[in-house]
Structures are given as C-alpha cells and as structure tokens.
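Intended use. Records like the one below are meant for learning the mapping from a protein sequence to its folded structure. Do not use them to infer anything beyond what is encoded.
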Amino acid sequence: MFPSNRLKKRYLLILLFILLVTIVLLFFRYGGELLVTEDDLEDVEQTVLVLLMGSVGDRALGALELYENEKADQIWMVQSHLEGRELLEEKNITIPGDAELSKRILTDSGVPEEKITIIPGDAESTKDEALAVRKYVQNHTEIDHLILTTSKFHSYRAKLIFNKALNDKGITIYSSPTPYDPYQARGWYKDREDIQRVTTEYMKLAHYFLLEQFQMK
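Structure written out for the chain above:
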C-alpha cells in the first residue's frame, strides 16, 4: 500500500522540522565563529594598520600591540561622524570623536604622534571608512598591504568591505581583530551583549550582500 497524501505531508513536516532544528543548532554552534576572520601575520611587518572606529578602548589596545610587535609602522583612522558636531562647533564646544580618543590612547601609550594619521571622512559606517581609505591611498601608491584592526565579531564583514573597496588597488588586506574584545565566538548565545552583537552583525551582512556592495563601485 502506498502512504496516503496525509501521511506524506506528515513525513514532510517531520523532515522539515528536523532540518530546521539542525540548522538552528549549527547556527548556535558555529554562527558566532563565522563572523571572526583572523589572518596569519607571520610574514607581515612594518606596514600600515587601519584602526576601525567603534569600540575605542579594546580596538586601540589591539592596534597598540601590533605596533609594539613591529607588525605596524603607521596607524590610520578615519574621522567618524559625530551627531551635532556643527552645532557644537558654533557654540565653541569641542568633543573628541572616536579617532581623537583612539589617538590619545595610542600616544599616551608611547606611539609617536607622527605615526598616526586621522583621515578626513565623517564616516558613519565601515563602508564610509573603506571608501575614505581608498581615496587616501591614491596618494600612497607604495602601499601594497594593510592590516585591519577591529572587534572580532566585525572582522569578517570589515575585510569583505575593504576588499571590495580596494580590489582595483592591488592591496592585500590582513585582518587582525583585537584580542581585547570581550566577544565570545563559541558561547555567544550565553551572553546578552553577544546575542545583540551577533544578531546585528548578521543583519548588517545581509544589508551588505543585498545592497551595500553595489553602492561601492
């Protein structure tokens, strides 16, 4: 006897349920790790490091460590957007942005000021930072590779965006996320902050693949 259509539907629903549960379990196990990209820097030395804005303290400490280990000789940052900056300037009020705060951490830690460059940009996103760096390297044709330092959960998307922005410049991008980032890639679902980071990052990845990459021509 052949199974009835009703039985077939039941089997199909069971299979779909098993598939869904498997996908969810795999996502919980590997979803956090897929966001992290860390390249081998063994053959890299005395190059330019691009410090991405966002979480100032831990990212700046990661850049400092790479500088002290002689992996980086120059540290670049893009000026980030500060809501209300013009209104504050009209009132002669100056508030340091992420780049200025990061520079202060680095110089107070012993990095010479001439080793740090803040690139104008008013950046609101990683895409804006990448495009500002692309414009800046047009006057620095000697550069053939860069180190990206950011948070662990941001490192995969950041490298995607910078590779897209610089793909016609012959520049190799190395990702070296800060080791001082508290993000736990394996047990991300156990921490409320990490849950928010992972959820937001996958939404931003979807936005990149569906829209943002086509805006970077």
